[in-house]
Structure formats: C-alpha cells, structure tokens
Inverse folding.
C-alpha cells in the first residue's frame, strides 16, 4: 500500500523558516517524480513545486521561487520542502503527492501557519 | 500562465441524478495532462481521471471524463451518497501545475 506521511508543520512568525518532510513507503520512491501541493484554509488546491527522480529538474510556482527549495533523499525515501522568508499567505496544509504531472497518491498533509 | 476555470461553483443534486462539471482552460492544453480529483472534507484529494478520459485505478465507471483543447468535462452518472464532494481539474504544462478553483457537488 502506498503511504505518504508529512511532518514538520507548525506555527512560525512572518519571515521565519520551516522544513517539511514526507516519508514514502509502499512503492519505489526513487523511480517517481514527487510534488508538493498546498491548500489554504477553506480554499482550493495550489501546486507548489515538483522534483525529478534524480533531482536534476525542479520547478516552482512563481509565488515561492527564491524562497522555497524542494529536495529529496532517495536512500531515505524522503521528500523535503525548505521554506524560508515565510509570509502569511503561505499558511496552508501542505501535501506531498506522487507524480510529476498527475498525482495518484497523496499524504494527509501538514499544517503550516504563518502568524505573529 | 494557463488558468483553469471550473463551473458551476456549486451543483445541488439528488442521489441518482447525473452531474456535469466543466473545466475551461485559458488556452488550448494537451489532453494528456488534464486530470480530475475528488476531495472530501478533512481528506486528501483522490485522483479520478487522467489524460482527460482515463479512469484511475479503482474508480467506478460512473465517473467519466471527456474534452479537448480548452473545454473538458467530468460526468458523474447516478450520483451515490459518497460522491458529494469538491471536484478539481488540474493541468500540467510548461513545467507548471495548475488547478481549477473547484466545483462543490452538494446534496439537494
């Protein structure tokens, strides 16, 4: 069974940093593109970033470019999202998902709240 | 930047009825990269349709997708109680992903 479990969310002040993790199991992690998708409270889904199997390609939504970095450790079956210079508008549940262009498995998400 | 516009915002229907959800792209997109998801309250989204018309693993055949170019449709025939949820279309292209704003299907 495919499982994706996120962690690392929490309350952070504007301008602060946070690192999200996603641990994968039940499939060959190193063979898959991976993606982060977020959902602000009561709002729709927003694609954030994705990363190729070997980290040779990484793409971001414009609103997080230069602030967020997606990475992975295939030996640990783990996906990461380093978030710096956080803003109030980054407040959301962050989901990791399997896939690069379509997302066939999702984690339950971890809540990031940016507030003073 | 491709924008996906979904309509209607809310659909009020009864179990057993059919639902037709629309997703319109701001420019022509490849059907190969058009997907639909279902999300219930407190749950992660679930992939329903990919490639505009292919059902994902385990998805009942009452869910069907169609369309090309800028206009895509998700049809749910014979709504079951568990189908009342929010539905999102999604496209990937030019190294960017984008979602529509969602259509809520609620019980009449």
């Amino acid at each position: 069974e495919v499982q994706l479990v996120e962690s690392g969310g929490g309350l952070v002040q504007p301008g602060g940093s946070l690192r999200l993790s996603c641990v994968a199991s039940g499939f060959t992690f190193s063979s898959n593109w991976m993606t982060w998708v977020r959902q602000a409270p009561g709002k729709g889904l927003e694609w954030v970033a994705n990363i190729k199997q070997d980290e040779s390609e990484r793409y971001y939504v414009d609103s997080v470019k230069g602030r967020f970095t997606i990475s992975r450790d295939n030996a640990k079956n783990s996906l990461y999202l380093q978030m710096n210079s956080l803003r109030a508008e980054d407040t959301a549940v962050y989901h990791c998902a399997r896939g690069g262009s379509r997302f066939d498995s999702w984690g339950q998400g971890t809540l990031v709240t940016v507030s003073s | 930047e491709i924008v996906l516009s979904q309509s209607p915002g809310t659909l009020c229907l009864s179990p057993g009825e059919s639902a037709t959800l629309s997703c319109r792209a701001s420019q022509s997109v490849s059907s190969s990269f058009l997907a639909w998801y279902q999300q219930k309250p407190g749950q992660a989204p679930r992939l329903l349709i990919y490639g505009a018309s292919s059902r994902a693993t385990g998805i009942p055949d009452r869910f069907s997708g169609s369309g090309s170019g800028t206009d895509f449709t998700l049809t749910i025939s014979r709504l079951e109680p568990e189908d009342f949820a929010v539905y999102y279309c999604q496209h990937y292209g030019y190294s960017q992903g984008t979602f529509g704003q969602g259509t809520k299907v609620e019980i009449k």
Remarks:
- Chain B touches chain A at residues 33, 35, 37, 39, 43-47, 50, 56-57, 88, 90, 92, 95-102 (CB under 8 Å).
- The mean pLDDT of chain B is 97.
- The CA atoms of residues 15 and 81 of chain B lie 6 Å apart.
